[in-house]
Amino acid sequence: MLPDFDRSEMPRALQNLRGHARADGSAALPRRSFLKLAGAAGLALGAYPHLASAQAADKAPGGLKPTQQPSAFVQIAPNGEVTVTINRLEFGQGVQTGLPMILAEELDADWSLVRSRHGSSDPAYVDPLFGIHLTGGSHSIKNSYTQYRELGARARAMLVAAAAARWNVSAASLRTQAGSVIGPGGLEASYGELAEAAMALPVPEKVKLKNPKDFRIIGRPTTRLDAAAKSSGRQEFGIDTHLPGQLTAVVAHPPVFGAKLGSVDDSAARAVKGVKAVLRVPVDRGGEGVAVIADGYWPAKQGRDALKLQWDTAAVEKVDSERQLAQYRELASQPGPHAFVADMAPLATAPRQLEAEFVFPYLAHAPMEPLNCTVRLADGRAELWVGTQCPGLDAAAAASVLGLKPEQVTMHVQTAGGGFGRRFVGTSDYVVEACTIAKAAQGAGLNAPVRLLWSREDDIKGGYYRPMHLHRARIGFDERGKVLAWDHVIVGQSILAGTVFEQFQVKNGIDASATEGMREPYGVPMRLTVHHPKLNVPVLWWRSVGSTHTAYVMETLLDDIARATKQDPVAYRMRLFGSKHPRHRAALQLAVDRSGYLKKQLPAGQAWGVAVHESFDSVIAYVVEASVQEGQPVLHRATAGVHCNLAVNPRSVEAQVQGSALMGMSMCMPGAAITLKEGVVQQSNFGDFVVPRITQMPQIAVHIVPSAEPPTGMGEPGLPPLAPAFANAIASLTGKPLRELPFKLA
Amino acid sequence: MSNLNVNGRDRSVDLDPGTPILWTLRDTLGLTGTKFGCGAALCGACTVHLDGQAIRSCITPISAAEGKKITTIEAATDGSDPVGTAVHAAWVRHDVAQCGYCQSGQIMSATAFIRSLPKGKQPSAEEIDGAMAGNICRCGTYARIRAAVADAAKSLA
What we know:
The structure holds two protein chains of two kinds. By secondary structure, chain A is of the alpha+beta class. Chain A folds into three domains: 7-231, 2-Layer Sandwich (Aldehyde Oxidoreductase, domain 4), CATH 3.30.365; 238-315 and 371-453, Aldehyde oxidase/xanthine dehydrogenase, molybdopterin binding domain (Aldehyde Oxidoreductase, domain 4, 2-Layer Sandwich), CATH 3.30.365.10; 335-362 and 465-734, Aldehyde Oxidoreductase, domain 4. Chain A contains 20 helices and 28 strands. A seven-stranded mixed sheet of chain A has the order 9-10-7-17-14-15-16, with helices on both faces. Chain A has a five-stranded mixed sheet with strand order 12-22-19-18-13, sandwiched between helices. In chain A, strands 23-24-25-28 form a four-stranded mixed sheet. In chain A, a hairpin with a 2-residue loop joins strand 14 and strand 15. In chain A, 57% of the residues are buried. The model of chain A is unreliable at 6-64 (pLDDT under 50). The mean pLDDT of chain B is 97. A five-stranded mixed sheet of chain B has the order 2-1-5-3-4, with helices on both faces. In chain B, 39% of the residues lie in helices and 13% in strands. In chain B, helix 3 (82-93) packs across helix 4 and helix 3 packs across helix 6. By secondary structure, chain B is an alpha+beta fold. Chain B has two domains: 2-75, Beta-grasp domain (Ubiquitin-like (UB roll), Roll), CATH 3.10.20.30; 76-156, DNA polymerase, domain 1 (Orthogonal Bundle), CATH 1.10.150.120. Chain B has helices spanning 21-28, 73-76, 82-93, 103-116, 125-132, 142-156; strands at residues 2-6, 9-13, 47-50, 53-56, 69-71. At the A-B interface, helix 8 and helix 19 of A face helix 1, helix 3, helix 4, helix 5 and helix 6 of B.
């Protein structure tokens, strides 16, 4: 959901964020933060750090490293329950279990006693590499692996030291096992017994981490900690927030992004039983809307339906998909900035030529939990309950809207029902909307917490889509498939322009998130020209970001070259990988071996398809089996070869690959497109923005290449290679490449 | 006043009879296990049982529930109902949930489906898909849903 970063640039990201507001994790952490909370039952090791003074201090990150503050991350109750605080949003990807596994491994915890909870916008919970609160870019496990190991090891060392003091023996004579410290002569004490004494001890500066061969929790397929709650309706999500006296707001948004209100007749809306207020409010992109506030969603929606509104769309651009495509084609013929260059002279003389144009539509994220945010304003402070990928950024935006200082805003990060990127928005659009309404409601005399809740229609029509893209390629190659020159053009809106990431991820007018996944790992001589038109449609990262289109283009074109030169697509790729890309080779070989590629006899009418792609430092290869039935491409089976280094929770990796693969397949299905006509989004709900159902689920087998190297991302990398593998199978059946998504068979 | 029977309890609510069961459960009765996904009977997140039949509570008004029994995920998985208990256990065993938001509806559809099977009958793969086709999972947990439904049915045989 976030492009890969050049990490050397991160301090600048931080500075940029700090320039906007200082509610993010940029404050120095206090040297010690072990405050015992009086009256907090069962609290033993540590407490939440009290950072008010640190937040006020305007200092660059420094002081205590995030790994040296166990109190903020692990609490051990007298009964031995270990509660691990996660510095990320849990929205399906499984960090709520993966991060505790990592900490519990080094702590030598009893896994049956491990619990998990969300952090907040407290500086303790910033990403240790990025220095901001962030769940995105498949970075959670990757960036916090060492952090959580060290936290666990430090807490363990403190427990051991407490036991050594109690028994008057040397710490070296003690060992730990499943939640207990064990000493000579049958001495044994549970972590729960030792926690309070351990809390009083200093945090060790240095700790020794385990050898991965001694892991007993990491690497073991583990059921999610939230499995039971999520299988009984007991898991609470942001939408379930219920505060005393809480009201619900539903907003009539403009039909065209940024449009203003002409006239408002709210008499019928105000007459709806339960409606408390109807307020004209500013909305995203300079637009206006009408918020109906009521004592529940249903009366608020009834009130909205009863509004008689006239909109003034004269001043806003009205994007139309058909015109947009023509405009993009025109742009693709114009000169533009180059992401990279190569000698294009061989194009004129290459023995084989290939020209291709690809079109990708806008896509909505459509997480199952509709967007929502609950705001309580009281005593000069604001509290927000929201499932957000970026609580620091959202807190800063909330503070700005509400006229508060960042430290006067408290974020309660809520478990979210999916997101796929939609809960990390540079403009904090729905959080700002919720705060705007809460402030207006207060101004109208309503002293109650307000929950903003979007309908599914608000979500599908609400923008922040994966951008529409046009790709054009002209490739010259020889009879062996060696690419001599590849001239490529990408046209699409920049995702990062206008966000805090613009200044270090948009260079030479080119957004790095639009070009990620191009050229590599094949090292072909490519000239890449990029155009970023500005249009009145808000865009956003969508699970796997640029790779949603670049992987498709690269992997189908490679197959076209292989087919044109009569080469097996696996052998062709292996030759290009050479010895430089062992992880690509290993992932593809595993998928080939486990799928029975070319060895197994496929049923008549089915064909093999292959694709490989690296994103977020993980490599996924798919070998798929597909056919055409009644004119529609059908995916029967996919075999994944996964290289994510060490798989912390293989059961979670399997789930992420299956889910990503299906989302990749979703891009191919009829109805998987957001289109606009005269500025108005044409789709509104799951009836016309189509997502896969169980009947369309292929068999997806997931195989992981064994590795003990530090883990890489798995939330997104399973998505990009699925659609091109599917397309390659269909193209080998029909002889015609598929160059438009969703698929259209001529 | 509308008189409802929710999870075995009689409840009176002072709401417009056209109010959907979903919002009555969530905003009035505080039963938030039943989820809002689309408001148009397209995704199944709001599935509850009305006299044992799976229905979409987002489009079913409370007037349609008078004199009938509404069962929600909270009661279906509280251990009192053998089918709901088996489905819940299978869901945990197969670690089905990712974000988990749609799973209340999935479980209510699965429970009604399994209860509808003739005693001892094991559903085919096609029957399971057919029964679950109305429930969308954007995380893509369908492979594990298939396995969990089959397993739950087997455990009850």
